[in-house]
């Protein structure tokens, strides 16, 4: 398993666990207000929300700022925290150690 897959699994797992907890809290709060918490349904709703979170993560995780699946380099701008997608192919990165921090100067025209 490569480094990107490990980071993706960790980020997607953390996101899914948070989603499960949020769904459970919302379900319990709503059910408690109505006076009846069905724990089986609560577990079902929570697990389903976690599965949906994992499936949504396949489309992309903004937490990952490494090379994306297509090999394009993702760069974070410190000025306004927007993500920029540069069209740099893996062939263009040959000979460059992409595991170290790289600095780019962004010029707005």
Description:
By secondary structure, this protein is mainly alpha-helical. The protein contains 2 helices and 2 strands. A two-stranded antiparallel ribbon has the order 1-2. Helix 1 runs antiparallel to helix 2. The longest helix has 32 residues. The chain is rod-shaped, with a radius of gyration of 20 Å.
Quick structural overview:
By secondary structure, the protein is mainly alpha-helical. The chain contains two helices and two strands; from the N terminus they run ααββ.
Oligomer: single chain
Kindly give the count of domains: 2
By DSSP (H or I, 4+ residues per run), the number of helices equals 2
Mean of pLDDT:
76
Radius of gyration: 20 Å
Number of beta strands: 2
What would the principal axes of the Cα set say about the shape?
A: rod-shaped
Low-confidence stretches: 66-79
**Estimated helix fraction:** 40-55%
β-strand percent reads: 5-15%
**Which secondary-structure class do the elements indicate?**
mainly alpha
The largest sheet has its strands arranged as: 1-2
Order of helices and strands: HHEE
Q: Could you give the distance between the termini?
A: 41 Å
Largest sheet: 2 strands, antiparallel
SSE order and pairing:
Blueprint (H helix, E strand, L loop, with lengths): L2 H32 L4 H19 L15 E4 L6 E4 L23
Antiparallel strand pairs: 1-2
Main attributes of the structure:
single chain; 109 residues; mainly alpha; two-stranded antiparallel sheet; 2 strands; 7% strand
